[in-house]
Design brief:
- By secondary structure, the protein is mainly α.
- The protein has four helices and no strands.
- It is elongated and about 65 Å long.
Length: about 90
């Protein structure tokens, strides 16, 4: 008797550092902080205290941004900052 195939319903993978660069690593954060004229050490400390909680799904992306960057008024928008963050992800050349 043949076993019935179970359909795949979900696929979990981490493409950062495999298919794409690590788009939000310390070098990318430093570039984005410089672009927006943010205090690097302060942003990095806030990131360090917050990012793991975000990666575990206990904090939304918007909450992460609120704690790391937008805890005070900024001369740029969340959308501008998000675009700059996302632009850091690049495919690895083949």
């Amino acid at each position: 008797m043949m076993k019935r195939a179970i359909p795949i319903t979900a696929l979990f993978l981490d493409i950062g550092g495999v298919l794409l660069n690590n788009g939000w690593d310390h070098q990318a954060r430093r570039r984005v902080a410089a672009h927006f004229k943010l205090e690097w050490a302060e942003m990095e400390e806030r990131h360090r205290l917050t990012f793991e909680t975000h990666e575990e799904g206990k904090l939304t992306f918007e909450e992460y941004l609120g704690r790391v960057v937008f805890y005070q008024k900024r001369p740029f928008t969340r959308a501008e900052f998000r675009r700059s963050m996302c632009a850091q992800s690049k495919p690895y050349p083949r």
